[in-house]
Specification:
Elements: H1 3-24, H2 28-40, H3 59-69, H4 80-93, H5 96-107, E1 113-116, E2 132-136, E3 139-150, E4 157-163, E5 174-180, E6 186-191, E7 200-211, E8 215-216, H6 222-238, H7 250-259, H8 266-294, H9 303-325, E9 336-337, E10 340-341, H10 342-355, H11 362-373, H12 396-399
Parallel strand pairs: 1-4
Antiparallel strand pairs: 2-3, 3-7, 4-5, 5-8, 6-7, 9-10
Helix pairs in contact: 1-3, 4-5, 4-6, 6-9, 7-8, 7-9, 8-9, 9-10, 9-11
Bound molecules: flavin-adenine dinucleotide.
Flavin-adenine dinucleotide binds at residues 81, 114-118, 123-124, 148-150, 199-200, 354, 357-358, 360-361, 363-364, 367.
Length: 401
């Protein structure tokens, strides 16, 4: 057996030994324990540098682990943002001290991370953010508000982008910081979404003192730092590594249609064919990105294609499952029916719209693909050279400041 096959076999054996416990691993504390075990066994941070706690292996080993993990539902949800976005940003542009301090505990699940970019007045146009950080002796003092922050109620640290110079155009006066979420000036309030759960939060910062060595990247270079995080985010979401809640695969939908005798109905056939094509396009595109990653190429802006394909597939498969199940899709007592799981469908129906927003909306993905992948003319940006202080954005709309 070659080394890669041996690695995959070891992963498969390790996972099946524990398979029974995945169903019972509930709660963040248990998930943390699982991550520590995963790290000790050599399966967390497979491609991450060894000197910071990773395994120092290649993309081939990472794929082998994902193959071995197929069919297991691993309790990794609390770590999605840290593993997919914050950690890779720290490894790319963090200082040596930051990498040595933060990456290993992140990979072991000892410290959970969130990403604080969006604000009530700055989502798609995140460069319009108003949370500010002002230099005061040996620290930056942060005041302001963030919103839609996934998982913040469980987090120990987060990456924040804040305005550090309002006198220059909006993209040039932003800085990224590591924030200790346990600081008494940080207030996290969970927001209930339509799944009935609290996936995300609003966060308030009141005179939070952030030491100078918590700046990530350059002071006022936070836009480049944020773009680094967002590129990682789209690849992480798009490849499904951040976790998704698909209602059903094409196969399960087709089985249900067959059970109902609906495969002769042209509109059902057309819907199923469309999903089949979407699923194939998504799998083939991601297979291509994996091959390129093996050759050392980062997808860059093309990560937005995966993200857009997955958001459409998630929405359309939830809608198709609901059509096939009819009212059963909304019945919490209905467990499964002809290849479809009614509870999973109900969950996917309420979760799917969020996929078209989180990590950048479908419209923004299309803009990025148009401008940065296809080379189409850029959207006009009349505010690009105007000092942030003079823009009518967020609360500045009302006050003129
Ligand atoms: C499930 C979920 C998890 C999230 N997690 C996080 C997180 O962890 N951290 C974080 O910082 N944020 C998070 N977000 C927030 C997310 O990034 C924003 O919701 C998103 O960027 C859109 O911003 P907005 O909600 O302010 O909408 P807006 O930016 O106000 O957009 C409103 C509408 O206008 C459209 N639009 C805006 N600008 C353009 C344009 N230039 N061209 C065409 N159409 C445009 C949008 O597509 C959208 O349809 C999360 C959101 C969701 C749903």
């Amino acid at each position: 057996m070659d080394e890669l096959a041996e690695f995959q076999e070891r992963a498969r054996a390790w996972l099946s030994e524990r398979s029974a416990s995945f169903e019972t691993v509930s709660g963040v504390a248990k998930a943390r324990e699982f991550m520590a075990e995963l790290h000790d066994a050599g399966f967390s941070g497979i491609t991450w540098p060894k000197e910071y706690g990773g395994q120092g292996l290649g993309v081939a080993e990472e794929r082998a682990f994902h193959k071995a993990a197929e069919g297991h539902s691993l309790p990794l949800a609390p770590f999605g943002i840290g593993l997919g976005m914050c950690g890779p940003t720290l490894v790319s542009i963090g200082t040596e001290e930051q990498k040595r301090r933060y990456v290993r505990p992140l990979l072991r699940g000892e410290e959970i991370w969130c990403q604080m970019f969006s604000e009530p007045g700055a989502g798609s146009d995140v460069a319009s953010l108003q949370t500010k950080a002002v230099l005061d002796g040996d620290a930056w003092v942060v005041n302001g508000q963030k919103v839609w922050t996934t998982g913040a109620q469980f987090c120990d640290y987060g990456l924040l982008v804040a305005r550090t110079d309002p006198d220059v155009p909006k993209h040039r006066g932003i800085t990224m910081f590591v924030i200790d979420m346990h600081d008494p000036g940080v207030t996290v309030r969970p927001l209930r979404d339509m799944t009935g759960l609290s996936h995300f939060n609003e966060i308030f910062f009141d005179d939070v003192r952030v030491p100078l060595d918590q700046v990530v990247g350059e002071v006022n270079g936070g836009w480049q730092a944020a773009v680094t995080t967002l590129l990682h985010e789209r690849v992480s979401i798009g490849t499904g590594r951040a976790g998704t809640q698909r209602a059903a695969s094409f196969e399960a939908l087709a089985e249900r249609a067959r059970a109902e005798g609906l495969t002769g109905d042209p509109s059902v056939r057309e819907g199923l064919l469309d999903l089949y094509l979407q699923e194939r396009a998504f799998d083939l595109f991601n297979a291509r990105l994996s091959q390129e990653a093996k050759a050392g190429l980062h997808p860059g802006a093309r990560g937005s294609i995966s993200k857009l394909l997955l958001a459409r597939l998630t929405l359309d498969s939830a809608a198709a499952a609901a059509d096939l199940l009819g009212p059963l899709a909304y019945d919490p007592l209905e467990e499964s029916s002809g290849g479809l799981d009614a509870e999973a469908t109900a969950r996917a129906l309420t979760w799917a719209p969020g996929m078209a927003l989180g990590g950048g909306t479908n419209e923004i993905m299309r803009n990025i693909i148009g401008e940065r992948v296809l080379g189409l003319p850029r959207e006009p940006q009349v505010d690009r050279e105007i000092p942030f202080r003079d823009l009518k954005v967020g609360t500045q709309k009302e006050t003129g400041r």
